[in-house]
């Protein structure tokens, strides 16, 4: 399955963070299906960290996972949120294409 990958630029399409853009930091899968992603600067939560020898501790802000249905890939060519079209070359290689402008997405 080819879908969203780490380091893809995405936009949040629903919820309290709607309209924010960021980069995928981590992808959580359940089998072959992508279930949740962590996006940089989106869905921040406060964590209370206990001090250790090397770390002072305190309250830190951290990204929390967000459901895959709430994010949409941003095409690097047209800079708009788009759905992904998957094409297969003659050699059997699969690649992603923007539905709006037709540009291949790496």
Separate helix tally: 0
The Rg value, from CA coordinates, equals 17 Å
Low-confidence stretches: none
Question: What coarse outline follows from CA principal-axis ratios?
Answer: elongated
User: What is the count of β-strands?
Assistant: 10
What is the CATH first-level class name?
Mainly Beta
The SSE string, one letter per element, is EEEEEEEEEE
First-to-last CA distance: 15 Å
Q: SS-based structural class?
A: mainly beta
**Which CATH architecture?**
Roll
Main beta sheet: strand number and arrangement? 5 strands, antiparallel
- Percent strand equals over 45%
**Strand order of the main beta sheet, please?**
6-3-2-1-7
Mean pLDDT: 93
Tell me the helix content: under 10%
Number of domains: 1
CATH-defined fold name: SH3 type barrels
How would you sum up this structure, described in words?
By secondary structure, the protein is mainly β. It has a single domain (9-49, 58-105), classed as SH3 type barrels, CATH 2.30.30. It has strands at residues 9-12, 21-30, 33-39, 44-49, 58-63, 66-67, 71-73, 84-88, 94-98, 104-105. The strands form 3 sheets. The chain has a 5-stranded antiparallel beta sheet with strand order 6-3-2-1-7, with no helix packed on it. A hairpin with a 5-residue loop joins strand 8 (84-88) and strand 9 (94-98). The two termini are 15 Å apart.
